[in-house]
Amino acid sequence: MTDAASIATRYIALWNEADQDRRKALLADLWAEAGTYRDPLIQGEGHDQIDALIAGVQGQFPNFRFTVVGQPDGYGDQVRFSWQLGPHGSDGPIKGTDFATLENGRLKSVVGFLDQVPAAA
């Protein structure tokens, strides 16, 4: 049985980890080696590309943190959860929902959807 809350919590911790060595260790523990990530703005395959994507998002939003919104759910090898990105302790201006497929308990693929993005000035 899939523990959606645990997967989502570990996934968000990975996206928030600024130390590259710790982030790479979390990534290796959570993701299958050939795992993929795709959303409307970025995509990557494998640990190195996914790590670079995370570092890029952190560089673009240096004082923002990801948090889980609502209750993650899932069944079988599928997990769904929503998140927000913003300053710590506040309502994030960026929100999304990710759908993950697991393989042997690790992330095989994640497809992200952006539910709320501020309009460009």
Automatic annotation (TrEMBL):
Pfam family, one: SnoaL_2
Taxonomy of the source species: Bacteria, Pseudomonadati, Pseudomonadota, Alphaproteobacteria, Hyphomicrobiales
InterPro entries: NTF2-like_dom_sf, SnoaL-like
SnoaL-like domain sequence ranges: 9-108
Domain of life, per lineage: Bacteria
Protein name according to UniProt: Nuclear transport factor 2 family protein
